[in-house]
Fold:
Amino acid sequence: MKTQILESTSENIKKAAEIIKKGGLVAFPTETVYGLGADAMDPEAVKKIYEAKGRPSDNPTIVHIGRASDIGQLTRMLSPGIVNLIENFWPGPLTLVVNKKPKVPDVTTGGLGTVAVRMPDHPVALELIRNAGCPIAAPSANISGKPSPTTAEHVIDDLDGKVDAILVGGMCRVGIESTVLDMTEEKPVILRPGIITADDIEAALNKDVSVDKVVLQKTSDGQGNEENAPKAPGMKYKHYAPDAQMLVVEGQREKVKSEINRLKDLNEKMGNKVGVMLFEEKAFIEAAHDFFAELRELDRQGVDIILAGALSATDGVGFAVMNRMMKSAGYNIVKV
Ligand code: AMP
Ligand code: MG
Structure:
């Protein structure tokens, strides 16, 4: 397939919207990461997303809408809590899991009775969705298992020849995927952490929010074969993995730095090319912005081993980055 690489002009966004309407695939920028979109209500179109990404079919997509009120096309019941979150955080990087209307295709929700919805805070994404005139199902626009794409180049590297078009925008502002919040039970549960934190949501709802306990745990062998299944199906698969072997070094900052230096020397003596990933202390927003891009850059440089310093955070944005870092490293960790 020939992939059209399109600058995000109004004319090109219209062209991309026509592709979506005809059941094709378009990758586009959002404020979190690039998404790979298809008409969420067209099962044949959504099936192509899974094929292009090599994504397991039980891993549901997030449905993106261009106006908050369009959530009514996807779900019947809007509790006061849901309305409150929409008013506070949309457009923005908060995905709400709600009960789905029967007309939302099973392939869009991985066979679940619920649907994940968000309104992105990005002018190109919003214009695309509004022009297409349908909700757009869009997981991240990478090959399944690889680091999420935060630039158009990342998308081209993974999906050129596999999708109809790629809308080129700048680097994504947030850099990690949206917070996924389950709103189907009495108590809201964070299924995937992001830059909208439990504290932010608690402040808006004036209610306790919990974090799915499996978020920072190793839950499977990568094939989804473990008892401790997370509620967000996507959280159980091998994720964000660079080509290099990756090790996370955790502990007090100075010790982490000296252990990374020691391991770097040792590995270089053995002929390995080593990359180091060490973020500024407490600069969590910047770490989120740069995390996936740095992983891809180290792979591009052909390093054999990535030594990453853990962020010291048990909640908030730092925690969201650590969730990705642990998965990238396949939970390969040393404590110092
Ligand atoms: P991605 O689109 O690649 O950012 O992945 C979407 C994430 O949202 C995955 O972790 C999915 O498992 C999760 N997700 C999507 N729909 C649902 C749903 N209905 N219930 C729970 N998690 C969901
Ligand atoms: Mg993804």
In short: The longest helix spans residues 253-269. Residues 139-140, 148 surround magnesium ion (ligand 2) (CB under 6 Å). Confidence is low (pLDDT under 50) at residues 221-225. The domain at 4-216 is CATH 3.90.870.10 (DHBP synthase).
